Amino acid sequence: MSTPPPTTIPDELLEEIFLRLPTSDAVARASAACTSFRRVIKARAFRRRFRALHRPPLLGFMDAAGFHPAQAPHPSAPLAGALAPRAADFSFVPAVVSSASYFVPRGVQEDDGEGPRWRPCDVRDGRVLLDWRSLRPGLEVSGVSTLMGSRELVRRKLCVRPKWCNAADFHLAVCDPLSSRYVLLPTIPQDLAAQPQDLLWEFLPVLAPCTGDDSDEEPFKVICIARYRTKLVLFVFPSTTRQWSMVESPISPSLYDMSSFDYVRGSFYWIEPYDLSDHLMVLDTRTLKFSTVGLLTGYHMEIRGLPGQSFDDLRPNAVVMGREGTLEMFSLVCQQGAFALYHTSLQNNS
What we know:
By secondary structure, this protein is α+β, with helices and mostly antiparallel strands. It contains seven helices and 18 strands. Helices cover 16% and strands 31% of the residues. The strands form five sheets. A four-stranded antiparallel β-sheet has the order 3-4-5-6, with no helix packed on it. It has a four-stranded antiparallel β-sheet with strand order 7-8-9-10, with no helix packed on it. Strands 11-12-13-14 form a four-stranded antiparallel β-sheet, with no helix packed on it.
C-alpha cells in the first residue's frame, strides 16, 4: 500500500503560524527552509502584518552631534550599544568634494577638527537624511559656509553674514546606517532654484514620514522647506521619480526659525514662541498643503505651576496626539515672572 502524499498546508495557515514566530531571525530561518515558506514570508501582506505585531526596537536618537543609543534600563540598551558605532558612521557615503578642496580661512577654527563631512539633519523610519557641510572659499570675510545652519553660526560667535546662496547649493543624501545603503540626491536644478527670485534666508531639509507599513520597501520623500524674505517654498524630491519639484506656499514666512516643529499624524506643526501668534501653521506632508489651526478656539487649562524655574524660550510648546485622537498642545507660559504649564485641546483645522 503506497504512502499517501503529505497534506499541503494552505498559505493562509502558514501565514498565521509564521506571525507567531517571536523574532525576525526566526522568520528568516523559516524562509530558508523551503520555497513554499519563502513565498509566504516574502509576500507584502505578510511582511506588513508581521511588522504591525513586531515593531522594530528603539535603538536611540540622532541629532547633528551624532547617535545617542538607548541606555539601561531600556530593554534595547544592549542592542543599541552594540550597533552604536555603525549607526553613527556615515563614511560609506561618498564625499561631495575631496579633502584637497578643504579651505579654512585665517582666524576661523576647524569645526571639531573633522573637516568637511556628511552630517545628519533628519531621521525618520530608520532612514537618515544627510547634508554636506564644509568650509569653502568664496565667502565674505569670515569664510563661513553657506551650508551652515544658524545655530552653528551662533556657536562660532561670528558676527558676520555669509554670502547669499540659492537652493541649488545644497548637497543631500539619504542612507540606512545599519545596512550601509545610501542614495545621493541630485542637487536642485539651477533654473528651479532661481524661480522664487528672492533672498534665501533659511533652508531646512526634512524626511517626509512613510505612508505605508512596509518601511523596507516604502519609497522615501525629501521635503526642503525654503524660507525666503517674502515667501515660503517647498522643494520636493520623491524617490519614485527622482525629480525635484517646487510648491509655493500661500502662507507668508512669519516664523523666525522653521527648524522647530512637531510631527503628528503625517503633518508638521509650527508655532511662534510665547503666544506671539494665535494659530499653528501646518504642513500636510502627503498633500504638501499648508493650513492653520486656531489656538483661540481650543480649551485651555493650567495643569501645573512652575515657580522659580527658567526655560529656553525657543521651544515653549509641544503639539501631540491625545488619547482620543484629538490634537493637543502643551505650553510653557510666563506670567508675572513665573512659568506655568498649560494644556490646550485644539479644534477647527482650517
